[in-house]
Write a structure and sequence with these properties.
single chain, alpha+beta, two-stranded parallel sheet, two-stranded antiparallel sheet
Length: 131
Amino acid sequence: MTVNRTQNQTGPATLTIFYASPLADSAGNTTSAAPSTSTNQSTPTSDRTPFGRTETIDMKHRHESEILSELMEMTKATPVVATPEEEAELRELAEEERQSGLDRARNAAYTEQKRQEKALLDQARGAVGPA
């Protein structure tokens, strides 16, 4: 898969799907890997030719779920169900993220308390002028 990105946000936002012809797949004509991403418009989209057909999806101002639905319908893709191990890993990651949020809040409160204590000490020492 090749992803070409542009800096021009006013231009079109299209997802182009290149389907290889069945003959190209069986003949083994896909010997080299295409680059995975590019911000250079001169980069070829893929060197895997010939294409059986291409289809495009206009992504401008559309929600990702709409784009995914259209992509899945267009390519006849099916969702992959997570294994129990993957589900357990996702739960573990969610718990770690929750704990990280608690830790960030606790650290922010501690830092704020230390800042206030320092300000009081500086004021008591006369380092800070009257408010």
